[in-house]
Fold these 2 entries.
Entry 1:
Amino acid sequence: MNPSDPPPLGDLEIAVLEDVWRAGTADAKTAHSRVGRSRAISLNTVQSTLERLFRKGLLRREKISHAYEYTAAVSRQELVGRLVESTVRRVAGDRPEVLLSAFVDLAGRADDEQLRQLETLIAQRRAELDDAEP
Amino acid sequence: MSGIAPLLQFALLSGFVLALTIALLLAAAERPLRNLLQRQAPQHRARLTWWLLVAPLATGAVYAAITVAMPSLFHDSAQFAAACSGHTGSWWHACVWHPSDHGQSLGVWVAMAVLGGLVGWLAARALGSLWAARRLARTMLRLSRPPRHPAEAHVLESEQPLALACGVGRGHVVLSQSLLDRLDPLQLRVVLAHEHSHVHHRDVLWRLLARLLSGLHLPGPRRRLLECLELASEQRCDRAAAEVVGSRLAVAETILAVERLFRGATPPPMTAAFSTGFVRERVHALLSAQQDRRGWLGSALAATLVAFAALSAGWLHHFTESLIAVLAG
């Protein structure tokens, strides 16, 4: 994996991350009450999820009394941006990613002159069609 | 094991030699083949190119399987009997149909194990990369808004314009909010129809299989055939989109509009290494009035391949025995 690739995230990790983004801060107990109970998962599971997100560099933490308090190390927009960037890099790389199929070929870009020629061609065809219509 | 081992060794080696021969023949005939492919409708071209990509491995595997499963098919063949009579007593004799007790070589098994290990290592590396890409795609889907009318696609809150189909099993279409904001309704319908066509045809899966199973081709022809497959599937989806919106011109305009958006947003280093792509080919194909030809090429190629594999049994037999002899020292 490229070092700048965002880490892969599971369903629970995203739910916990979304919770931290919404609330601003969270410790294991509050995250469990907001995310864990509705999913019928234990406090330990939520705790280890927070730990994993911290290790992946997506959360910061500070020890307050006996418990860690977590805050987001990256914003949602930043994470999605990294994800899209990584996706584009994979689709556009010299070995294009086969699991993704982009609408336009990100690897082989037409140059400006080519684009202008194609636009002229389309405009001509459009004009011919318009002229042909009664 | 000792009973089946000589047969297995011969079958694997014969299959490998046949696969390599077909890869070399396809490489030699690449240019005329690609000219013929160009005249096919995109859906036929995609299917044919896929089969050409997997042909060496598939033919070799089928040949080896038939040799193991049905050795009696060629039993009592006068041709082979005559060919074998000259060396039936020699220790490296490896004939499937007239096996001897010494019909296998430890050296060949070692060579095969090394080759198998190399293939396994390459496959593991490819699978590792695929697994990482799959996890990335899943994370992207989890962070996106689920599909709902009218977009019928996962939507990512991103400034980067993005439209893609992903997923090997149940496919998904992902659009970025930025693209949704910048396209007009007709262009959005084109993009969605195009990407849903990829999902409908399971293009991601077929492309993945083509990449994995085309490893016996020479690198150059393999890369060009994979590009041909890519272009054919893009053009097939362009046509599907044109049918949905009722205008080829609208699809061509959308391709250019999205290309312009990408050019404005993609960082220069990402585009610097490449000068041209499929945009020109796709737009020209949409604007051309070329009629689709009847798809006879597939049947002709399949018949040629089967005939070649069947007729090659004789020389393959001799060549493989000679190869074993050389490898066995």
Entry 2:
Amino acid sequence: MYAVEVDNLRKEFFRRDATRSGLRRKRKRVPALEGVSFAIERGECVAILGQNGSGKSTLVRLLSTLLLNDGGSARIFGHDVFAEQRVVQRLVNRVSVEASFFKKMSSEENLAYAARFYGMAPKETKDEIIRILQRVGFPTDRRHEGMEHLSRGMQQKVALARALLTSPVVLLLDEPTTGLDPRSKLEVQDFIREIRTTHDATILLCTHDLHEAEILSDRVGILDRGRLVALAPVTELKEAYDADTLEEAFFAATGRAFEEEDEDAERGVFA
Amino acid sequence: MSTIPGPMVFRGSLRHEAITFAGVVERNWYLIKRYFWWELAFFVWSLANTLTIVFIAKGIKAAGGQIDVNRATTTLLIGAVIWSYLGIVFEFMTETVAWERWEGTIEYTFMAPLRRSVHLFGVGVFAVVYGVFRSAVLFTVVAFFFGLHMPDANFIAAIAVLTVASASFIGVGTMTSVLPLISPEKGAQLGFVAQGTLLVISGVYYPVSVLPQWMQWLSTISPATYALRGIRRALLGGASLAGVWQDIWPLLIIGTVAMPLGLWVFGRGEVYAKKHGKLKRSG
């Protein structure tokens, strides 16, 4: 059984157009994912590379049960993501580019209530929160401070702690190091490596950091305008596209340089 | 090595539901603590608003009107306090989504294995407990300020009416809380429209009988109508539990319909939000 199994997954959004038809504004169909298929083995780390608007966040949000599909299927350890949402929710957790906390509440308070939502009682979390904050390199003497007083790097460490506190078997990382300073970025990347060795977690890492994808993952997928155009270990990708670097492989696979903005990046606005 | 749980592990786990319910209450308690000064400011605003309304009774007397000032003052005070209470319950319910969207936590809450009924009921119960506490303080402060006498008041009957009415308020609040879910830009404002409509039709400051006939018909489906009438009966007329039964039974019916209907409406709204990508933070 695969940890994650996605088959011909489709999702589209509708954007209101400036033009009107009678009293109603016209709506434009914006495809976000078009027939994406892949599978991830238990314990594997797969990175999905793509520009802004390529559909990375839509994929993560679909697997997190935050979106409903328009076609195809997705399974987490055999459970249908869209039909068995509560079971899937217990198996999955997520770290996104925004840390997303109640800013006035402390890290300890944010972690405590989040853990309750996963059925963890106060006696289970009392010591566990301190232990997990230590593990992510968060200074535990600051656990009573409001999140608004913490740096972006610190907040992202708390976000990692929140995801791990609930012992997910599938971890969805949606650009977890974007916007972090170099030191915080390295710390978060080190921690992701540690999770793989100690936590028996399957990881789907969506990123637009080529280096991060290369050093952290077993296989790299290239998502372009909602289509998964390649998925293979980095060495095989380079061989397949006769490229010396992952950036060159990306260019060969998509026909565009990695830094280029997707001209239809409005997908990202909806996704 | 962790095992992969199947559906049976979570099905029917009362302990899990109790803990998640406690988590919702716990989170709201943290927020009240952390936003204490905001809460204090809102309380002072409610107090000033209530005093302004209650002074109307003295104003009518001063302008030459013939009224029983003590009775009119108490009538207005009950209206203002119940309105304030309803506002707290609706505010908490509506902000179930709106506040989370603003803070950016909405995605984490809605991807957690938290049964929506437990989630919304947890918010509702906290709102009711906090609302009763704040309204009781408001009532006491204003009653002392005006030196009100309520020698016949039956507080037990009044609390019974408020308790039964609260189930309906949670149900109606759940229906309005779906608005920010399906319309991130306009939803919270539409919640105020629903709240304002209840204010007009429920006889908060005047008897329902002064309303046009079509509004009187609408008032019969508003739980606030029966809550206000029953509480006034208990506090002004000293009605016993049996005396307020005529207001309690309609509240029981409205509550029985409103709670499941509210959950159903919210469930439909959640499906719509997941279909159209609206379950996400603002900005």
